[in-house]
Write a structure and sequence with these properties.
- By secondary structure, the protein is mainly alpha-helical.
- It contains 5 helices and no strands.
Length: 76
């Protein structure tokens, strides 16, 4: 991810974090995590993107439904 992409994600995460309730640092952390997952979900399917999404906390079930692939394709 480039500097400009991460800067853009932060700009999108701040309004999303303002809508949430609770401690600001926790809200911002959750919002940034959601924005990063959305960023990688917009990219075409590849094993590398799937591994990044799994590392960021996205579930295998969500990846299968979004990309229309089988579990063994993601985990290989």
């Amino acid at each position: 991810m480039t500097y400009n992409q991460s800067k853009d994600l932060m700009r999108k995460a701040v309004p999303f974090a303002r809508k949430l309730e609770g401690d600001w640092s926790a809200r911002m952390s959750m919002a940034l995590k959601v924005m990063v997952i959305k960023h990688y979900m917009r990219q075409p399917f590849s094993v590398e993107n799937a591994q990044i999404l799994l590392a960021k906390g996205c579930s295998v079930r969500k990846l299968c439904k979004h990309y229309g692939v089988k579990r063994h394709q993601i985990l290989s």
